[in-house]
Amino acid sequence: MSSTITENQITDTQAYCQQLADKAYAASRSLSGVASQQRIDALNAIATRIEASAEFLKSENAKDLAAGEANGLSSAMLDRLKIDDTRIASIAGSVREIASQTDPLGQIIEGRVLPNGLKLSKVRVPLGVVLIIFESRPNVTSDAAVLCIKSGNATILRGGKEAIHSNNALAQCVRGGLEDAGINPDVVQLVQTTDRAAVGALLKMDNRIDLAIPRGGKSLIKAVVEQAHIPVIKHYTGNCHVYVDNVCDEQMAIDICINAKTQRTGVCNATETILLHKDVVASGLGKKICDALIAKGVEIRGDASIAKLNDKIKAATPQDWDEEYLDMIVAMKTVDSLADAATHINDHGSRHTDAIVTNDVNHADQFVQSVDTANTFVNCSTRFSDGGEYGLGAEIGISTDKLHARGPMGAADLTTYKWVIYGNGQVRG
Fold first, then answer.
1. Is residue 397 part of a domain?
2. What is the pLDDT of residues 18-33, one digit of tens each?
3. Does residue 427 form part of some domain?
């Protein structure tokens, strides 16, 4: 394993962060000249290292889980934090899938010959150095690093303090795999201090870092945006919705609501609010949906009409419409129309993922056009909002911004472009 600095060896956070940024910047320049096959070899070597380090990864993860339990983390948050054999296999598989994907670098986005004979091409190139700030899920360490390597970028990773041991273990696998393939391991830097001042220091290094991507809650996103001197792509909270239309298949509606809420609660694409058309509430389908959720152990917080459907339903407050629970809790509201549902989603959602259940193609089209969200689904669970499910192998996150990427971000979304012009002695008159 590659050697690392421990937190108690860091005495000057500003100087330490400057060193990380300088190393990443220098390494990014060397990486730009690395051939595609060598980067592929590095990713496969990383996957092999992860598999071979399974016991080490689990033992380091156990330290984080023990600390999390002692600090009162919820069961959903502990689930996000956990690394086991199944997840190690999934992490390694994701790395290999990214390795097998088409190299985005050098792709010609568009090209043409100008009237004066100049050959003009718009070509994909790396961004440079990407700072990624994230919470809880240690697999983000490997996913983010690998996507950056695939796209020719260096990266600085700053994970949450609750996963410090797990993140460090995975980063060692990544850096070791880079060394195995003859690539400078400084391409990947992991921030080893939990001092919050480190984030602020890095966000101001616009002469070294080209982009910041924060993944986390509202407070993290707000802090990053306020402090950053560099461009930011926000991966905001997942206040996802399912709207059950008045024209729908009953069993489909029940199945989608159950899956979207309960299949895995502690993730950003789990549904947090279910909107029921008033006719759905009146018809009895609303009660069936509520009863099915309660039978699964879900706490429902509903409006006055919803509360009448089951005596276990709690009264919703205005705050519930804006909440990302990441738990077995869901808010439910009655709406008068599809237009009202879209208005509620646009007012309270996080522009992440929102779904409609309907048998009316015109209603589906209206929903798609009127809801301002990165991922708009028709007749399927919000849980499919995921880079792996989209065939991206993994994702750097799910952008809720509109510039420069939106939705699940794969390797191609970590590139920019430059114009390349070939001439034959032309001069401008």
1. no
2. 999 999 999 999 998 8
3. no
